[in-house]
Amino acid sequence: MEIVINGNVIAVPDDLQNVTLLDFLRDFVMLTGTKFGCGVGLCGACTVHLDGVAARSCQTYVSDIINVEVTTIEGLDQTSPGEGLHPVQQAWIAEGVPQCGYCQAGQIMTASALLHRNPAPTDAEIREEMNGNLCRCGTYDRIRRAITRVAQEA
């Protein structure tokens, strides 16, 4: 079995097909930007894109993602070739969003999926979409400002 992660075809050994995508990414592919938070899909720290849609990697099994393009935080800049950082990452820096930084990969992945699907979300749409991503530092206002910045600059 093979899966595609950040544009790279990765062979999956038979004994790893029933592990979570989160564990596969972190422990076997060594892509550690995707974080373990709660393990039950409630906090959003493990968010990745599956065919461009935000998904919790702690609740997704490797065997479930055959023929699905996986994008992690490490591959997000590949979605905007030649620009270095993805526009959401640039806005995160401009707005000074991160504090401890632990949740930020999941926040950025959720925000970028939202903006891909809806390039001009309202504040209510941003709040609704980001609602499932928890930030212990409480940087929610800065997160919303960063998302709004990307929408306005697009």
What is the subunit arrangement here?
single chain
Helical segment count: 5
Report the CATH C-level class of the largest domain.
Mainly Alpha
- Report the sheet with the most strands, covering strand number, pairing sense and barrel closure: 5 strands, mixed
Give the topology string: H per helix, E per strand: EEHEEEHHHH
Q: From the 3D coordinates, which CATH architecture of the largest domain would you assign? A: Orthogonal Bundle
Number of separate strands: 5
CATH topology of the largest domain: DNA polymerase, domain 1
The number of domains is: 2
The dominant shape is: globular
What structural class do you assign from the helix and strand content? alpha+beta
Q: Estimate the mean pLDDT confidence.
A: 94
Strand order of the largest sheet: 2-1-5-3-4
- Look at the structure and name the CATH superfamily of the largest domain: [2Fe-2S]-binding domain
Helix content: 25-40%
Protein name: 2Fe-2S iron-sulfur cluster binding domain-containing protein
Organism: Parasedimentitalea huanghaiensis
Pfam family, one: Fer2
InterPro entries: 2Fe-2S-bd, 2Fe-2S-bd_dom_sf, 2Fe-2S_ferredoxin-like_sf, 2Fe-2S_ferredoxin-type, 2Fe2S_fd_BS, Beta-grasp_dom_sf, Diverse_Oxidoreductases
